[in-house]
Amino acid sequence: MKPQEVVDFAKKNNVEFVDLKFIDFPGIWQHTTIPVNRLDTSLFEDGIGFDGSSIRGWQPINASDMLIIPDPETARLDPFNARPTLHLICSVFDPITKQAYSRDPRHIAKKAEAYLKQTGIGDTAFMGPEAEFFVFDDVRFDHSQPNAGYYFLDSNEGAWNSGKDEKPNLGYKIRHKEGYFPVPPTDTLAGLRQEMMAVLMQTGVEIEVGHHEVASAGQCELGMKFARLLPAADQLLWFKYVVKNVARKAGKTATFMPKPLFGDNGSGMHCHQSIWKEGKPLFGGDGYAGLSDTALFYIGGIIKHAKSIAALTNPTTNSYRRLVPGFEAPVNLAYSSRNRSASVRIPISGPSPKTRRIEVRFPDPSCNPYLAFSAMLMAGLDGIQNKIHPGDPLDKDIYALSPEELKEVPHMPGDLDEALVSLEKDHEYLLRGDVFTKDAIHEWLDYKRTRELNPIRMRPTPHEFFLYFDI
Fold first, then answer.
1. Could you confirm whether 138 is annotated as catalytic?
2. pLDDT grade, residue 328 (50/70/90)?
3. Is 132 a catalytic residue?
4. Which of 38, 56, 338, 340 is catalytic?
5. Residue from 94, 213, 418, 426 carrying the catalytic annotation
6. Is 228 among the catalytic positions?
7. Is position 270 annotated as part of the catalytic site?
8. Active site includes 359?
9. Using one digit for the tens of pLDDT, what is the confidence trace for 14-63?
10. Is the pLDDT of residue 325 over 80?
């Protein structure tokens, strides 16, 4: 929509309020609400002010005034407010210069799309994220006490509840790692997923599939259709918003935390990607698995920079509870048409070049999608520009390799600290076209180390008491 069309749309739907959403640096939506009488075409040029010093990772208090300006193309009705409410996603600007803010993740995504065109390689990058999540019935945790800390999660589906007196317990609990595709009554969330899918489709998101995922205790996946990089990131935030609020209305809670459960599968966000130019796909060819040299070089760039990309695609300490070698997680920096332990997979598709794409499997849904998608695109473009071949595919059973063979396969970082160090050393490819700035990268490293990594390092865990209390 154009600005006037948004104003007309609001009138047609008797909108009373306008909810203005924007994303903070780590990747969580923030919002403010205005009455509809403030909605006119000037709002899309002038925006409204807010205090940037109160947003994580942004302006210092001595230069805190900032603007949010809504994007008219993101207009849709919010399905969760009692009064008719229009939803708009905003970008962030300096109120004096009207320049886009360098740490605004949405601005970084816009620059990534612009840089793709600038290279002449292509004009459109498509992203198709598959964000897995858990639905729980009870969540409790306490982290703030110097002498205590705990978490407790529960799900009516949980395998650990098979012996619980539920007055009555009707059985049909999901065994660990056996949650993939069971039918009701074992799958207790089929109706809830349908409601999530219905709300998403009513608000304009094209949903292709929904199912229970592998883990016990409510792991789910809903598949969205791919979109251009910036709209795909916008859509992923809307997806998470809908999933969380539909769960909440049902008396449950949803989380996109990568590894909430010990001893079962974590939640990933496999990301399908392709580049097009003038309406023609560039990844189809007569090479391995039907790929073009362009696609193979793109994969080469992803693999070369994967350890630094991880600081943005797997940006939490919890991300690395999922990315553990020797299990099913895609920690191996290799590519394959069938092997799901490889970090890049080429999905089986029909003969049409339009369906040719790659699937980067290591990201998880804790990421800020604007930053993650932009980083993967920049790495892939570096691979194309410098003709970085990814080497031979990993079509062997990774678990059948000898220790000597396994040493030859590089791995993802083992923890967030290693990923941040990798980003610190390897980020020149992100600076091209001024897509990421040194300031944004420095702030990301500093925020992650001071606000997340160090606090986790200093806290004992329950399992450490189990291991070491009697020393």
1. no
2. confident
3. yes
4. 340
5. 213
6. no
7. yes
8. yes
9. 999 999 999 999 999 999 999 999 999 999 999 999 888 888 887 664 56
10. no
Q: Exactly one of 87, 103, 270, 356 is catalytic; which is it? A: 270
* 464 is a catalytic site residue: no
CA–CA distances in Å: residue 140 to residues 151, 217, 249, 266, 456: 6, 15, 19, 19, 18
State the virtual CA torsion across 206, 208, 214, 218 in degrees, nearest 10. Answer: 50
- Catalytic residue (choose from 78, 113, 137, 359): 359
Q: Which of 5, 8, 51, 428 is catalytic?
A: 51
Q: Contact at 8 Å (CB) between 70 and 7?
A: no
Provide the 10 A C-beta neighbour count for residue 470.
6
| pTM of the shown model | 0.95
pLDDT one-digit tens code per residue, 137-179: 999 999 878 898 899 999 999 999 999 999 999 999 999 999 9
Catalytic residue among 87, 322, 361, 427: 361
- Say what percent of the chain tops pLDDT 90: 84
pLDDT per residue as tens digits for the range 227-272: 999 999 999 999 999 999 999 999 999 999 999 999 999 999 999 9
Helix/strand/coil (H/E/C) assignment for every residue in the chain: CCHHHHHHHHHHCCCCEEEEEEECCCCCEEEEEEEHHHCCCCHHHHCEEEEHHHCCCCCCHHHCEEEEEECHHHCEECCCCCCCEEEEEEEEECCCCCCECCCCHHHHHHHHHHHHHHHCCCCEEEEEEEEEEEEECEEEEECCCCCCCEEEEECCCCHHHCCCCCCCCCCCCCCCCCCCCCCCCCCCCHHHHHHHHHHHHHCCCCEEEEEECCCCCCEEEEEECCEEHHHHHHHHHHHHHHHHHHHHHCCCEEECCCCCCCCCCCCCEEEEEEEEECCEECCECCCHHHECHHHHHHHHHHHHHHHHHHHHHCCCCCHHHHCCCCCCCCCEEEEECCCCCEEEECCCCCCCHHHCCEEECCCCCCCCHHHHHHHHHHHHHHHHHCCCCCCCCCCCCHHHCCHHHHHCCCECCCCHHHHHHHHHHCCHHHHHHHCCCHHHHHHHHHHHHHHHHHHHHCCCCHHHHHHHCCC
Q: Of 24, 130, 187, 264, which residue is the catalytic one?
A: 130
> Active-site residue 178, yes or no?
no
